[in-house]
Request: fold
Amino acid sequence: MEVLEWVCETIHFEDLQDVWIHVRVLPPKLCSWNAFAQIISGIGILLEVDWPSIFKSFYEVVRVKVSCKDRSKIPIERLLEMKEKLYIIFFSVEGAQQEQKN
Reply:
């Protein structure tokens, strides 16, 4: 059996969009890179955290940069379990109108 190098290119399905998201109602003790990555994992890939904005808002708003497939499908709120407790986390996308879905 011989293993050969793949020389053909595959066609990409879709490009990812980079968007800034505001995350609200997050307890200050959960403000860490790992917690943000866990929260954002259902939306897309965490790229960057705007740490100065967290301190300016006194941990009320966390601004994160996310790479996702479709920014219009980012939910307004999500129920998350972290450290054996349930939290309702609210999201808002910078520069976009989100639709409320029942």
Remarks:
- The longest strand covers residues 85-93.
- The chain has two helices and five strands.
- Residues 33-40 form the longest helix (8 residues).
